[in-house]
């Protein structure tokens, strides 16, 4: 009996310590809430908060349930971070545009660790303004139009690899496509061995990004932290080599390397790495998700598909007759394909105000190029159930929308 008691004694001590810790934290939180009036809402379980409720269901359900109980502004706790949720267009505009100076952008510390604390979207004020201007300068229409031919080649190569009698996961393939375009916009033409190292380690980081932030060995988050360290090392090698070779390519990396503020201060390797990984992160999953949904909605709505197809086939036939490629001006003149008319401040895929996505023109360009070649040269068939949505945390069609593609010059 004494042995049993001695065995469980440290366990009980540990549990009692955890209990006291939780109670003290809750008392501190209540005292803090008395001093600072917060919106209504639940902070959920200690540490876990309401993360599982948000990540395991339709976010619309998560929001609507809490709106009914608490109103359009409520508090919660996600991925170890206390936060305030806004569920009205007016509130979104206030935070992003009219009163943006009153708000500091913050992310859960776990996410900041994986991307890097110097990434521009973790900041506001002078540093944010200067870095944002620099990034925008490499992603403005005047700059990205020079990437047209390369993006087109990446899209055509991707589509060629999909065609045939096999099933592909559209979302996963679109992620590969978006990552290739992101790497192109940051580095220009990157050596193949560096590109493969970047993609391999970024994939590990990506898998751990939305996991619970625990550093236990073997967990996705711990693997992601190690991959993030390797990414910094890879980027330092690339930066060092380009400095030695004095390469003058006009891309984001060269702009970051040559940046100087008013006092002549430059960016160090970690600041460069943080902002490169931040741009890669911003350029990948969201664009891939949007393109996956576009293909699903086109497949589900034959009338819309036929209208988009007719518009793109006319452009494709013209270019083939004149033996030329898709042009920048043609991507600016796709009225039906380009259309997205919604009520202001209700759908903001690129954000708004000072923190609007600086790469929105690049994202739209790669989507238009991909749609052009898919609908003008291919037909596709969604495999299995066409309903259902997965959340991780943003929505994608079930199983990433499995489909088969066939290359075809003309079809009905």
Explain this structure to me?
- With 412 residues, the chain is mostly helical.
- It contains 17 helices and seven strands.
- The chain has helices at 2-35, 51-55, 59-70, 89-98, 109-115, 125-139, 141-144, 148-162, 170-187, 192-209, 220-245, 252-257, 269-300, 302-321, 328-331, 335-338, 360-377; strands at residues 73-78, 81-86, 164-169, 378-382, 389-391, 395-397, 402-407.
- It has a three-stranded antiparallel β-sheet.
- α10 (192-209) runs antiparallel to α11 and α14 packs across α17.
- The longest helix has 34 residues, at 2-35.
User: Helix segment count?
Assistant: 17
Placed side by side, the strands forming the largest sheet appear as 3-7-4
Class from helix and strand fractions: mainly alpha
Mean pLDDT across all amino acids: 82
The major beta sheet can be summarized as: 3 strands, antiparallel
Supply Rg: 24 Å
- Give helix % range: 55-70%
Strand and helix order: HHHEEHHHHHEHHHHHHHHHEEEE
Low-confidence runs of at least 5 consecutive residues: 1-24
According to DSSP, the number of beta strands is 7
